[in-house]
Structure formats: C-alpha cells, structure tokens
Amino acid sequence: MSESPKEMRESPQESGKNPNESGKNPNELGDNAKELGENAKESGEEASVDSAITETDLHSFSEDVTYAGVTSFIKRPYRKDLEGIDAVILGVPFDTATTNRPGARFGPRSIRAASSLLSYEEHVYGWDFHPITEMAIVDHGDLPFDFSRPAGVPAAIEAYAKKIINAGPMLLALGGDHFISYPLLKAHAERHGTPLSIIHFDAHSDTWEDKNDDGVNHGTMFWHAAREGLVDPATSVQIGLRTTNLDTMGFNILDAPWVHRHGPDAVIAETRRIVGDKKAYLTFDIDCLDPSYAPGTGTPSPGGLTTHQAFQILQGLSGLNIIGADVVEVSPPYDVAEITALAAAQLATNFLCLFARAPWRSAK
Q1: Which of 10, 119, 173, 188 would you label with 167, given CA atoms 20 to 30 Å apart?
Q2: Is residue 109 packed enough to be buried (19+ CB in 10 Å), middle (13-18) or exposed (0-12)?
Q3: What is the set of domains in the chain, with CATH numbers?
Q4: Torsions phi, psi of 340, nearest 5?
Q5: What are 96-141's pLDDT values in tens digits?
Q6: Alpha-carbon span 355 to 74, nearest angstrom
Q7: Which residue spans within 255-313 are E strands per DSSP?
C-alpha cells in the first residue's frame, strides 16, 4: 500500500522512528564515499571527481576538473568535525538586511562555484605559498537559521560562530549581506577580547545611526559595534569609501579618491600604521570594487577600487594579526559571467593567506 501524503511528509522524529536506527555512524555516507575513492585509486580505476567529500588529506590539492564534482570552497573537504582544524569556511546565506537589491543569500553558493577555478593552483598568485599546505582548511557548509524568524537570525549567527571559533579554528565567512559582520564581530570579540580593530573595505561606511537597538540593517552594523565597544575606531581603517556620511565616529578613512591618488603602497603603509599589532577583523564588502569589476552586488557605487588594487593591498597586509574575515554582498542575480563571484573567491583565498601569516596563531 502506498504511503499517505502525511506519512510522506513526516520526519523521522515526528513519526517516532530513530533516524539512526541501524546503529551506523551518521557520517556513513561520507565515510563510504571516502572508501570508494581510496579503493578506486588503489585499483587503478578513475578516482572520484568528488574530492570535497572523498578527500582525507587536508593538505592535498584537488585533482578534480574545475567544472565537475561536488562544489566546495576551492574544493576543500566538507567537515563538521572541528578537531585539528585551523580554518573553517562558513556560508551565511542571509540577505534580509539589504536596503536596495537583494540576492546575496545566493552569494556563498556562487563564490564556492567560482572558486573551483582556483582549486588546482599550488601557490596563491602574489604569495610564495598556498595556505592549504600550512593549514588544515575545511568547508563547513552553510550556517543554519530559521528564515521564518528573521529577528532571531543575528543571535543564531553569533552562537554558531562562537561554536566554531571557541573550538579553535579561524573563521572565514561567505555572505550574505554585510549585516552578518555584526554578530560575527560579537563572537570574535568574546573569543579575543575587546576592543578589536577592523580593516573594512567598502563603498559605504556602514556607520549610519540606527534608531533601533535591535535593528537589522546592513548600513548600521559598525555604528552599533563602535557604540558597544566591540571595535576601536582609532585603530580601525575603512578603505574605498565613496558615499557621504558626515559622522565618521572616529574611524580612519582612506576613501576611494585617496586610494586612487596615493596608490596601494600608501594604503598598505597607513593601514599597518593604524592597526599596528592589534588583533583585527577583516571585512570586505564586494561593492568596494568598482561596478565594472563587481557588478553583482546590491548597492553598487561607481569610482571604486580595481581588483588589482585590492589584491595588492591585501598582500601588503601580511603579518598583521588578522583573527577572522568575511567577504559579503555578492548578489549573483546581478552578476555578469561570474566576475563578481570570482573576485570574491580570489579575495577569500588571499584572506586565508593572511590567516596563515597572522602572528597571534603561533603564539597560541
């Protein structure tokens, strides 16, 4: 007899069945996939193209073709177990704090897909190494939250981020809109102490006053963070701004005209002077880039940085005490030929290089 619609909809918990009644490890599918991949290699057969689920060596490079297989960030293995992990990639597909065009909820997926093109390189261009060889890096999948209760999402992001970073790994978040930086900052501040410094790449200051203490708005996060003492504006820097907000709240601003006039080397020198050896959170809104380089975003603003400038600046920040990072506001519905997602993927790979060179890691 066929199942009724109700029976088909019931979860194992609702039906009273034990979802693991076989007694097998809940990670059995992943374990079996790994075993199949290893057996294929030993027998001389073609190995699986799904290294994101079959790879057991966290320091090896994927042999998948770039256009096939399970998609993870630069083909890193998917893992929920954080033991022995140095850095975690976490998608945060939240975009209900946007004030203009939505779509950043699809950002993590598009960044992962674009990153496949970078998965075979054994050095990150502009660096003399690849973080995969020095750190155990995994893709943790996407952060779970109840989309039907948006007011509870900030607390869910903060709690999940705490769970990860308190277990030891550094966290690289793929947004999602820029509001996610606020609960992520809270989680990092609890782990590393307050106030933190921030290195903030953006077209907008995101320090506009919020009339609600519990407002969920991607233009007010750093106003909240500064008022709450999570960050120190005097030891923080905002790079690439080109929209007007007369109240700087004491943040050091290297706006886009300043960057174009003085060049990346000057930005590097000023950033290093301002931040010094303090622990710093790095956040990169993709609209810091000019729309010609990153059209797929919600609030584009002409006159921004080039990808070359951004990469050069990031490479010049090697050795700063970066404790965590995010890249946000990639909105695939407005992208062209995935150039925005690819820029974000390359930026995120540079962030991992900065993680690997952060002095505080060796002092743990």
Answers
A1: 119
A2: middle
A3: 57-362 (3.40.800.10)
A4: -70, -45
A5: 888 889 999 999 999 999 999 998 888 999 999 999 999 999 999 9
A6: 16
A7: 280-285
